[in-house]
Amino acid sequence: MDAKVLNSALEWVERQTHLCTKQARMLSNGDQGCLLQAFSLMVKPLHILELGAFTGYSTICLSRGLQEGGSIDTIEVYDELEDIIRGGFRRAGLIDVAGREDIAHLHIGDAKKIIPTLDKIYDIVYIDANKREYKEYYDLVFDKIRPGGYILADNVLWSGKVLLDNPPKDAQTQSIIAFNKMVAADPRVENTILPIRDGINVIYKL
Ligand SMILES: C[S@@+](CC[C@H](N)C(=O)[O-])C[C@H]1O[C@@H](n2cnc3c(N)ncnc32)[C@H](O)[C@@H]1O
């Protein structure tokens, strides 16, 4: 994908996100966006799945290293975001490109219901939706990832709360702690947590 076209689309998405939404802090911009782009360029994926598009910023970053003929499926439950998401995809050349099938496929709805309907095998799955549901997402996507493929799970340090001796008892903190423990104990994968922004668990399927 053309870096200049993607960067100009990312600028547009970032601006629209600040203008039109109240939770711009959810954007995977800055260092994290650069990491997603670099990771995609290293893996050169054919198919990517993203859970939690928000305004599509990370979708565009992840698309950077897609192979010719590749695609990215992204799932977002909040349908009011659709116009910004599609506007960014058009600017990035991921949809509505003459003579070419769409590269990005937006699915509006609950990831838990949509994942079982997808029939591709993915090289990268980016988990960034409801923090209380990471374990369920992991189980649902696992068999849809090729051996040698990756899961990237965002926010696994949860502002450092998961590292406290007495972590808060709220559902999100507890779910992320349980998710990190489950991944670390899963013999089917190797993983490492990168302390970039809110922490990204890089999980390699053996
Ligand atoms: C942290 S934001 C995603 C940020 C985005 N990946 C980015 O980097 O710009 C999480 C998103 O997940 C969505 N979400 C939450 N639960 C979901 C679910 N069960 N299925 C699909 N999307 C969900 C939220 O509406 C929100 O837009």
Number of folding domains?
1
Straight-line distance between termini: 28 Å
Tell me the Rg in angstroms: 16 Å
Largest sheet: 7 strands, mixed
In N-to-C order, the SSE pattern is HHEHEHEHEHEHEE
Approximate strand percentage: 15-25%
Strand order in the largest sheet: 3-2-1-4-5-7-6
Silhouette = globular
CATH domain class: Alpha Beta
- How would you name the CATH homologous superfamily? Vaccinia Virus protein VP39
Bound ligands:
S-adenosylmethionine
The residue ranges in which pLDDT falls below 50 over 5 or more consecutive positions are none
What is the CATH topology classification name?
Rossmann fold
* H/I helix tally: 7
Q: What is the tally of beta strands?
A: 7
Protein model, in words:
The chain is α/β, with parallel strands linked by helices and 206 residues long. It has a single domain, classed as Rossmann fold, CATH 3.40.50. Helix content is 37%, strand content 21%. The chain is built from 7 helices and 7 strands. The chain has helices at residues 3-20, 31-43, 57-62, 82-92, 111-114, 134-142, 171-185, and strands at 47-51, 71-76, 104-108, 122-127, 145-154, 189-194, 200-205. It has a 7-stranded mixed sheet with strand order 3-2-1-4-5-7-6, sandwiched between helices. Strand 2 (71-76), helix 4 (82-92) and strand 3 (104-108) form a beta-alpha-beta unit. Helix 1 packs antiparallel against helix 4 (82-92). The protein is globular and about 55 Å long. The model has no long low-confidence stretch (mean pLDDT 96). Bound molecules: S-adenosylmethionine (SAM). The site of S-adenosylmethionine (SAM) has 20 residues, from helix 3, strand 2 and helix 5.
